[in-house]
Design brief:
- This protein has 167 residues and is mostly beta strands.
- The chain is built from no helices and nine strands.
- A nine-stranded antiparallel sheet has the order 1-2-3-4-5-6-7-8-9, with no helix packed on it.
- It is elongated.
- The protein starts with a strand and ends with a strand.
Length: 167
């Protein structure tokens, strides 16, 4: 952290912060982390800020294991000449969201189901703080899996199925 003389009269300041906690309680485990970074940028319109948060949990029992997670990542930045040198005031903001749950039985025959969802969004401005060249994108990916396997004298035999949608 601090100030460094950049090009011209631009000063660069960057700040970073983050923390994580891992807790085990009985048959459960939990992990949570957050982070944030921001910078004024070293050149005009190269500023950015990024944030993230993540949580995962796990339950372990003799009959099965269950895991889940969720997360968020954000990023906003001045995209000086990132896409074109003709437009130095470009801007972009992205977001990513994630949720998933999976499990697995124990014993001779294993079942391993999972379900997930991921969303990504993107907001672009050709000229920052205007609607000139502005566009929005959103992608959703979600799915459901059911896999299984059995170990036996000749090795492991497995089979499964998946439903997945991307839009």
């Amino acid at each position: 952290c601090g100030r460094v003389r950049g090009l011209g009269d631009v000063y660069r300041r960057q700040r970073d912060a983050g923390a994580g906690v891992d807790v085990s309680a009985g048959k459960t485990q939990h992990y949570f982390s957050v982070g944030y970074t921001r910078s004024d940028g070293a050149t005009a319109n190269s500023d950015f800020n990024k944030g993230n948060a993540f949580y995962s949990g796990k339950l372990t029992l003799p009959e099965f294991r269950l895991q889940w997670q969720t997360g968020l990542v954000t990023q906003n930045y001045g995209a000086n000449t990132f896409y074109s040198g003709l437009y130095p005031d470009q801007y972009e903001a992205t977001r990513r969201y994630l949720i998933s749950v999976s499990g697995e039985t124990t014993g001779t025959f294993h079942l391993a189901p999972s379900v997930y969802w991921l969303r990504s969004t993107d907001h672009f401005q050709l000229i920052r703080n205007t609607s000139t060249g502005e566009n929005y994108h959103r992608t959703d990916v979600y799915g459901l899996n059911l896999n299984s396997y059995v170990d036996w004298a000749l090795g492991r035999t497995s089979f499964g199925t998946e439903f997945r949608n991307e839009g």
